[in-house]
Amino acid sequence: MGEARQVPGDSILPLRLEEVSFVAGGKTIIDRVSLTIEAGPRTIILGPNGAGKSVLMRLCHGLLEPTSGRVVWNRPERRGEPRRQAMVFQRQVMLRRSALANITYALKLAGVPWRERERRAYEALERVGLTHLAKRSARVLSGGEQQRLALARAWALRPEVLFLDEPTASLDPGATAEVERIIEAIHAAGTKILMITHNLGQARRLGDEVVFLSAGQVKERASIDDFFTAPASAEAEAFLKGELPWLYHDVASPASAPLRLRR
Amino acid sequence: MLLGPCGGRVFHTGGLRLDVIVDALAQAIGLITRLDPTLLEIVWLSLKVSLSAVAIATALALPIGAAIAVSRFPGRRAVIVLLNAFMGLPPVVVGLLVYLLLSRAGPLGHFGILFTPTAMVIAQTILILPIIAALARQAVEDAWNEYREQLQSLGAYGWTAALTLVWDIRFSLVTAVLAGLGRAAAEVGAVMIVGGNIEGVTRVMTTTIALETSKGDLPLALGLGIVLVTLVLLLNGAAQSLRDLAQQRYG
């Protein structure tokens, strides 16, 4: 899919978060986060449950308004204009229509002329291997198929930025591998990837850099290798110890266990 | 046939013998199978009045329900409570209010539509509007909670989002509309008061059943009762099949 439509300076990236806080029900979920997201590297957002990862992503994507601070895109978005960012959720919401129509609906909202919609939708379906299910109702597809359809829908929009909130959390290993392949391909076609995952193996396979979140604050930002081999913050180290005890407790672990994390 | 409750033989419940009931039932079935013109006329007027009321109420109630579902405004909770409470409006009270509005001295008296089918349509519309609006509100709100983030992510806001939502849950909304139709077709109080139960003009199934039973003309009452129950059953059967079909096809 011809992605290279961005003139330098026309890009919506970088995305800057300036002292962004989000408070809900008196509880501070995101606490004065400042962050710059550049085009290019695949960014993995890691952190324990309740760290505020999903909320941070929704603030970036504009699904939530910050309580204070600013979310600034290089090229501000206006309502009514086609969005140049897309998001794939942990649990997809498909409209009660065919797989194909779910994509053409998104393309219509993105201002794609109707003549082009079907062709682009089929193209996207083919890339995720769902062409044979194009006319099937989206809601009767399996979880893995729906997730691939969601990726196809996002891909068809040719977004500059794709947000992924635990896209494989409820999938089996086969479906997970397929979803990872698609994410790789979307990135290879020029889309910036921002992904939340609890699967550290997946983080290593798919990520270039890590933004580590704890208690609503960014505690660490590092390349993927640095993060896993030498976390700089105490919080990240504690998190890794909790998630990967065999890396830290020699006695309890077979020697080969760390290899599971290698690509 | 005379008008009024004292127009015919009066049966007391205790005085009804089984053979009278069986006889009346046979006659009732006869009326239906022969397509008795009086019976048909009454059924036809019932359908006209109730379907008109449903059409008008639906056109008003769906947008109202959807708007309340997706918007946030002060007093919203109170509106929802009120709407839900109005689902149980007593038909006679609605009839009384519409009667007062349309009576010669009332604010809308100069239209001269009291005791006409139009008045009955108005009364039934008021009666079922809250039902359809409240059920639609619930259905749209549930869907909105499920769809909101996805639709916003895709860039669907305001009316675009609302229309997408309503179209996507159209089969659930059919249930809301049919609930309204069932209520309209079965109620007797409102149409009795504002229609006046005038033979050949404003007599519908329910008012005729009430009148003929008190007069003792059981065959017509029973015949209409059978037709009414059959219609309600058919409607609900159709609604259920539609939902099943939709569930199967669209998930």
In short:
The complex is a heterodimer of chains A (263) and B (251). Chain A has 9 helices and 9 strands.
Can you tell me about this structure?
The complex is a heterodimer of chains A (263) and B (251). With 263 residues, chain A is of the alpha/beta class. Chain A has nine helices and nine strands. Chain A is 35% helix and 22% strand. In chain A, the strands form two sheets. A six-stranded mixed beta sheet of chain A has the order 5-6-7-3-8-9, with helices on both faces. In chain A, strands 2-1-4 form a three-stranded antiparallel beta sheet, covered by helices on one side. In chain A, helix 5 (173-188) links the parallel strand 6 and strand 7 (192-196). In chain A, helix 4 (143-156) packs parallel to helix 5. Chain B has one domain (18-250): MetI-like fold. Chain B contains ten helices and no strands. In chain B, helix 4 (91-102) crosses helix 5 (117-154), helix 5 (117-154) runs antiparallel to helix 7 (170-186) and helix 5 crosses helix 8 (189-195). The termini of chain B are far apart. At the A-B interface, helix 2 of A face helix 5, helix 6 and helix 10 of B.
The overall pLDDT average of chain B reads 89
Q: Classify the beta-strand content of chain A into a percent band.
A: 15-25%
What CATH architecture of chain B do you see?
Orthogonal Bundle
CATH first level of chain B:
Mainly Alpha
Oligomer: heterodimer
At CATH level 2, the architecture of chain A is 3-Layer(aba) Sandwich
Strand order in the sheet with the most strands of chain A: 5-6-7-3-8-9
CATH topology of chain B: MetI-like fold
| Secondary-structure element order of chain B, N to C | HHHHHHHHHH
- Largest sheet entry of chain A: 6 strands, mixed
Shape of chain B: globular
Corresponding CATH superfamily of chain A: P-loop containing nucleotide triphosphate hydrolases
Q: Helix coverage percent of residues of chain A?
A: 25-40%
Total tally of structural domains of chain B: 1
The secondary structure category of chain A is alpha/beta
Question: What is the number of helices of chain B?
Answer: 10
The helix-and-strand class of chain B reads mainly alpha
Give the count of helical stretches of chain A: 9
* Shape by Cα distribution of chain A: globular
